[in-house]
Amino acid sequence: MTSYVFDPAPLPAAPVRGTDARFPINRIFCVGRNYEAHAREMGVQVDREAPFYFTKSPGTYVPSGAAIAYPPATENYHYEMELVVAIGKPAFRVAREQALDVVYGYACGLDMTRRDLQLAARAKQRPWDIGKDFEDSAVLSEIVPVAECGHPTSGTLELRVDGETKQSSDLTLLIWSIPELIAHLSTLYHLQPGDLIYTGTPEGVGPVRPGNRIEGSIAQVGTITLTIGEAA
């Protein structure tokens, strides 16, 4: 029997629609600048040669419906609504034509961002970790299996703050498609069951403050909610 110097953290795992089983989260990959209009609002150009990524720790997972504290060290805390791909089979150097075969399902995600810290790091050509990979920054709805939702390639993606629409776009505007992302990412990593891919956010990102309630939805996939509490 293995002995630890302290109890290991519980394995993050997301609910799956229609079952009591949960989806164990292995790694979280996030795609940057995958909508043209969002890149423009951030003052940057889209790199169309290849997608680029940043990561979040599995422990940053927060389930939809949670209330979380406003995070430390920021004055510009942003939402980013995204379609999330849940990987269900191993994949390494998978062809684009077979890429969808490794998808278990889809979910709604919020890539919560300390924008001021991200932009400061970007200006100094430093990694984005402290702006992106921090506690409670990867919000996720229940995962919908492919058998129930298919592979969404079009449909409205929306986000509202206190009932006011802030983001409204369509999945057809993704620069890199789901098969393209999986095929490319699988040349860089041995993708494993439990990996998540946050596929990027459209334009309309913006700040939230304590007391705000976020509600989002993606056609065919579902909904997501989050309440922002006072700073801890």
What do these coordinates show?
This protein is α+β, with helices and mostly antiparallel strands. The chain has a single domain, classed as Fumarylacetoacetate hydrolase, domain 2 (Alpha-Beta Complex). Helix content is 15%, strand content 34%. It has helices spanning 36-41, 115-123, 129-132, 146-149, 178-188; strands spanning 13-15, 22-24, 28-32, 52-56, 61-63, 67-69, 77-79, 81-87, 103-111, 113-114, 138-140, 144-145, 156-161, 164-170, 196-198, 206-207, 213-218, 222-229. Strands 3, 4, 5, 8, 9, 11, 12 and 15 form an eight-stranded mixed beta sheet that branches. Strands 6-18-17-13-14 form a five-stranded mixed beta sheet, with no helix packed on it. A hairpin with a 2-residue loop joins strand 13 and strand 14 (164-170). The model has no long low-confidence stretch (mean pLDDT 97).
Question: What can be said about this structure in brief?
Answer:
With 232 residues, this protein is of the alpha+beta class. Helix content is 15%, strand content 34%. Strand 13 (156-161) and strand 14 (164-170) form a beta hairpin.
